[in-house]
Design brief:
Length: 58
């Protein structure tokens, strides 16, 4: 159908259009974020700041 479209009535079709069943980049990023939330030992910024070697100034 796209190949039969011709100028000037229609824009010229360029490139390849196909349907692919694959996760989107956005869904992959959010899946990665959720995974890291589950496995991270730090549940908040406060946990991160209090982890490791800390000191106090008197």
């Amino acid at each position: 159908m796209l190949a039969n479209m011709s100028p000037p009535e229609f824009p010229a079709a360029l490139g390849v259009i196909r349907s692919v069943k694959a996760p989107t980049v956005e869904s992959a990023v959010w899946e990665s974020v959720e995974h890291e939330k589950k496995v991270s030992p730090y549940k908040s910024v406060d946990d991160l700041l209090k982890a490791g070697n800390t000191w106090s100034i008197d």
